[in-house]
Amino acid sequence: MVELYGRVLTRREVAAHSGALSQFAGVRLMTLGDGLERGIRMLEFRSGTGLRFTVLVDRALDIAECEYKGLPIGWHSPAGFRNPGLLDYEGEGGLGWLRSFSGLLVTCGLDHILFMDEAPAVHYRYPHRKSVKASIHGRVSGIPARLGGYGERWEGDRCFLWCEGTVTQATVFGEDLHLTRRIEIEVGTNVVHLHDEVANRGFYRTPHMYMYHINVGHPLIDEGSRYIAPIADVVWASHAGQDYQGQGVGYWRFPAPQLDFLEQVWQHQLASDPQGRTPVMVANDRLGIGFKVITRTDQFPCMLEWQNFQAGNYALGIEPSTNHVHGAAFARDREELIWLDPGAARHYETSLCILDGACEIARAEAETRALGRQPDEDYPQPSFNYTPLGER
């Protein structure tokens, strides 16, 4: 059954109330036509609840805009949604990626995440490629997808909106990694499901690292908004070795935009339910709106929190990651880098949920705290206890 506007309807009843489902909900393909965005194919999803989000086909099927009943959820950076043809990934000493960094979901990978790195390339069996240089957060988010399809699917009286495509990150004498992404949402709901497969289609054993940069902005992020997660341990904070409380911003209560704020990054070790699922949520109690991300700890064992409360760049990042915050060299030294054999694949299942009203926020918070109660203090001392991830 489809729940729309306070009524539960069959498929025939939905049809009886309109000439087409698109009056209430749907997914459609369009092409942006001006400025830095010119030429980008974009899919617009509307679930029938007031939830609208857009998927950039030509930027790795990342989620760009997201709003609920007219209230923005996703972050828009000054860089905008840049056509990937304008991206100089290796520019600016490895920081060129930042010139296309915007939107609710920015995918990082497929063979590298976090800060710049250079590693031996002997596994690619090509003497002229002595090393692989990686810029910040990898190449994938600057690659257009091959769109496999999109539309609506009915299962009895339930309707699902979906899209699917494949992003190819490949070179001669190097990696040949393919991300196949499927995005689905049931009509009448506020839960977006991401199904990702990263496969090695080549014939070299290839490293794999993966992370989601899930960026929420104002008005969800505002003075007094809260970060809620089943934190078993605060592992690391980027500023802990300096003046830990110098900016007056702890890990869970957010300030208004700050002049000259220096980004803060935390790594948390999270508890999970018996199925291995773990939630992270942000709540704005004043507006009665929340946002929850559900991941699997066997897929993303590390959770980073990015606080970018600088005026003009005001955002919070929820960052599930395959690896610890210190990146590729740290992973290699600890033998924690994922290696995909030829033909091997990894799968990732993630949900993004809108929480509408104080009751939904309270219910989600209670479920989260039942898994593990996060520290009450703003500045818990990091343990620097990096859980061994093992050879993968």
UniProtKB/TrEMBL annotation:
Superkingdom: Bacteria
Pfam families membership: DUF4432 (PF14486)
InterPro entries documented for this protein: DUF4432 (IPR027839), GH-type_carb-bd (IPR014718)
Record region (Disordered): 370-392
Protein name (record): Aldose 1-epimerase family protein
Species this chain originates from: Sinorhizobium numidicum
